[in-house]
Amino acid sequence: MRTYPIPFNEEARLRSVFSVPGFTEANTAVFDAICEATRKLLGCPIAHISVIEDDTQWYKSVVGIALERMPKNNSFCTHTIMSGQPMVVPDLSKDPRFENHPMVAEGGPGARFYAGVPLILSSGQRFGSLCGLDLVPHDAPSDQQMAILEDLGCAVVAALEAVPPKPVSQTPDEAVQSTFITLIGHEFRTPLTILSGSLKMLDAMAQNGANKSLLSSAYRSAEQLMGLVETIITFSNASTGELRLNETFAGFEHITKSVADLVLPGPDGTLKSIRFADNLLTLPVYMDPEQIKLALNALALNAINHGGDEITVASRLDAAGNIELSITDNGALDMNVELAKLYEPFVVGGDIDQRDTRGGLGLGLPLTRKLVELHGGEFEVEASENRTTAIIRLPAWRARTAQVA
């Protein structure tokens, strides 16, 4: 499976990359000079300036080794651009993210040390990195060395954007703001839908006594909404469409059981509940637990609204050690739902007015996919005549990171 994370605002990031005139593979002496300074600063034989596109990474300048355009699975810099902070890995072979990386594992060049800073355009979008590499481990660079490396990174951006004398004209990216609001707006509506549905049912049942399960769903949805507001305020940037992860070690069992109290009526008014498969995973995982819970709750709510009457949550490790979390219902996708389109940006899978009430997919898919890809994972839907399964797959290194921490 994929080994690299995808920024939440990937489409907007790529628009910024392709709008800069300096982004050509033609090299100039200034970029070679910056790379030479980088490898001397870090005491490394190799330095390069990378540009991360949709499927590949290429180099504006490389010194110390010959590198061609390569797939993102072979890139360290795809991890560097996930935040505005430097990324330093003293020994790549001891980092669960990279121990099986083609550049690190046996048979490859044997990369060991990496230190890089993200390159940030004046639009705020990150497009690549300036980094040093070595084939032997290093101690982490000093704060002063990393500060100088960041200054060199700023020089790369200035040269690319021609500042001075011809500054790049930056205009607001209205599409990224609209997309961000659409995706995040859906996640505000998700707990509100649960809360509203629970309260309506409680109101209808008031004369016969409150239903404890509905009360629990309403309470959890209110908590989720409050947590979502805090997450958006703290970890997002609407101007660039970015959403950052707040990663920590969390028990996977707690994540899967976060949907336990979701008891809601389906379209026909019948209460639906969720059961759990045997042998749920209990191992700790390095992730943003709140974002994974958001993704899981969105899929569960979609199964309740659009799926069959039997809904099951399961989790397991696949043969490669990747973590799989799935929600299965015994409904079939409507014939109007086009599975191929479910993986396109911001597409929900055909005309929403044509959604059958028997297929467990809906509007939560675009955001769910983005949150999973932000974790370096993959999102997949398997559909048959009498079953629909949505699968969240997280890379194996997220479990191994917890084991070595």
UniProtKB/TrEMBL annotation:
Highest taxon, organism lineage: Bacteria
Coiled-coil residues: none
EC number: 2.7.13.3
Name of the molecule in the record: histidine kinase
A Pfam family per the record: GAF
Catalytic reactions of this protein: ATP + protein L-histidine = ADP + protein N-phospho-L-histidine
Any GO MF annotation of the entry: kinase activity
Keyword annotations from UniProtKB, A to Z: Kinase, Phosphoprotein, Transferase
Domain Histidine kinase: 183-398
InterPro entries linked: GAF, GAF-like_dom_sf, HATPase_C_sf, HATPase_dom, His_kinase_dom, HisK_dim/P_dom, HisK_dim/P_sf, Sig_transdc_His_kin-like_C
First and last residue of the signal peptide: none
